[in-house]
Amino acid sequence: DAGVIQSPRHEVTEMGQEVTLRCKPISGHNSLFWYRQTMMRGLELLIYFNNNVPIDDSGMPEDRFSAKMPNASFSTLKIQPSEPRDSAVYFCASRQTANYGYTFGSGTRLTVV
Amino acid sequence: TQLLEQSPQFLSIQEGENLTVYCNSSSVFSSLQWYRQEPGEGPVLLVTVVTGGEVKKLKRLTFQFGDARKDSSLHITAAQPGDTGLYLCAGGKAGGTSYGKLTFGQGTILTVHP
């Protein structure tokens, strides 16, 4: 099992540019979560999907953020346009059922300059 | 919004010492999980507790879920440098709009010196 795979591991971009983060969940896991981690705010849930359907996107900070899950094996988180305050580590996690813990990816460290 | 408060935020101890990390909330959770995160990696699940009063042991780590399912603790016996990391508690609710998602505490950064 390769685990949850995120790409890229690091992203440095200029303010105003579009950023796309990618995630491949574990096969057979039916829930997928996008989190953002900063020193100030810790781990914040941005959005999560059950069976590819967005269930709760109340954590998405602004309309600049959008997420999609076109199929069970792929999800994207897009920021357009990016701003310096979006700099953080973004984690994707998947879970088999509600009674199981999350498996996190290694994260994407985003720096917007 | 549920709030999970962890204490202490930082803990720096010598190898061989014991320690306890606390996770408290005013909300009732159907389950509580503990994760450990190392630099540059995502959190890794250590344990899930679901029953009030439940105690689980994982080698030198002991996890307890409060009777009212509002709080939890993590106790490490004879800490080792390999225990160094960020420890996170996370609570889940059984129903309603919160179903299926975890709320994470701010974390406790543990440093164990050789």
Describe the structure.
The complex is a heterodimer of chains A (113) and B (114). By secondary structure, chain A is mainly beta. Chain A has strands at 5-7, 10-13, 19-24, 31-38, 42-50, 53-56, 65-71, 74-79, 88-95, 103-104, 108-112. In chain A, strands 2, 4, 5, 6, 9, 10 and 11 form a seven-stranded mixed beta sheet that branches. Chain A has a four-stranded antiparallel beta sheet with strand order 1-3-8-7, with no helix packed on it. In chain A, strand 7 and strand 8 (74-79) form a beta hairpin. With 114 residues, chain B is mainly β. Chain B is globular. Chain B contains no helices and eleven strands. Chain B has strands at 5-7, 10-14, 19-24, 31-37, 44-49, 55-58, 61-65, 71-76, 85-92, 102-104, 108-113. In chain B, strands 2, 4, 5, 9, 10 and 11 form a six-stranded mixed beta sheet that branches. Helix content of chain B is 0%, strand content 52%. The model of chain B has no long low-confidence stretch (mean pLDDT 91).
